[in-house]
Design a protein that fits this description.
Elements lengths: L1 E3 L6 E14 L2 H7 L3 E13 L3 E5 L4 E6 L5 E6 L5 E4 L11 E6 L15 E3 L1 H12 L1
Parallel strand pairs: 2-8, 8-9
Antiparallel strand pairs: 1-2, 2-3, 3-7, 4-5, 5-6, 6-7
Length: about 140
Amino acid sequence: MKARCLCGATQFEVELKNHEVAVCHCSMCRRQTSGPLLSIDIEKMDFTEQQYLSVYSSSEWAERGFCNACGTMLFWRTKDHSFANINVFTLDELPEDLNLNLEIYIDSKPTFYAFNNQTKKMTEAEVIEMFNADKE
């Protein structure tokens, strides 16, 4: 599937793992996007235009990609590239069968907004444990 930033200076193709959309309520995603990040897991990502691609090391184990021309948040991935997801709205065409089914860092979510549908909810500790379990 084709994806791109707002201005089109950074373009890439992705292979989706599934059509399950996750919401991240962590403070970094909220600060970066001015709201919760809606993302979808990917198998692989190949950049076709990357002159303006920047990668920010946001923690000891993860990094975030963005277009430094327009500021669009593009992806989040582990530094070893074993797991990655993209901002679902970077996709040129959204699959019709997308399903919002997971909210992470639920213990960081501000009280002034909520999603209507039922989702699995994971705390910060549960998310960190999940990624650390993959490394054992």
